[in-house]
Amino acid sequence: IGGGMGGSIDPNFSVDEMVVDYVHVYQKDYVTNDKEAPSGVKNIRAVANSFSPEEGNITWDAASDDMGIKQYHIYVNGVKKGTSETNMYRLTNLNANTAYNVTIIAQDYAGNLSPQVTGVIETPNWPADGELIDATKFIDTRNKNMELQLSSDLGGGYHLAYLNDNDYFRYKVNITQAGTYRVQYRVSSENGGGKLQLRIGTESINTTNISSTGSWSTFTTVESMTFEVDEPGEKLVTILIEKAGLNLKWFKIIPV
Fold this sequence. Notes:
Layout: H1 30-33, E1 42-46, E2 56-61, E3 69-76, E4 79-84, E5 88-91, E6 99-108, E7 117-122, E8 133-134, E9 140-142, E10 147-150, E11 158-161, E12 168-175, E13 179-188, E14 194-200, E15 203-210, E16 219-223, E17 227-229, E18 233-243, E19 247-255
Antiparallel strand pairs: 1-2, 2-5, 3-4, 3-6, 6-7, 8-19, 9-12, 10-11, 12-18, 13-16, 13-17, 13-19, 14-15, 14-18
């Protein structure tokens, strides 16, 4: 620009305006050129540590195609759940302790479909009585400004902190048999005065008073009064912060 072919550029040359006469837009003709179907995917599997009993992420080894993969179609037990442009998809509305047949079909840009490939994904069960239940793994909550804090307690992990009156946290627990139970709570409290209320379903079971443990970073295990469970099964358990003044790390519902 501004000089002869192979010559130097004129330093006094400037452009006042430029007019575009036309623009060519080229589209790749996938339908005409792509006659080959994609390969099937491989190794359908759950993403490690992503699954609860009700949802989780799945992944697979990507299909191959000479002109590229546009998307994947995902089916669960024969019912289409959606599509994904990557080799990952989140399954929702699942049941605990259940095996699902997950089928994936790859599609290229010409609309060619791969062979269908099916894998089995199994959901975990809800924690059972006697098992430690991480308080941070709630399935539902109402709280004002709760925070998850790194715990200095044995075993590390996190705990619920900055709790307020009437905050609640819900969990599902598998009660394996009818009988007498109590709850163990792993708590810390600088000044004491906190209260934890246990609810199963819509029924208020009991309230446990929390005394001072010496500091917010010092945890101890406290026990509730005993209570009766008449029918075993999957229970919706609510921990209500009846009175603030505590941190909560875990709890157990244990048979007596």
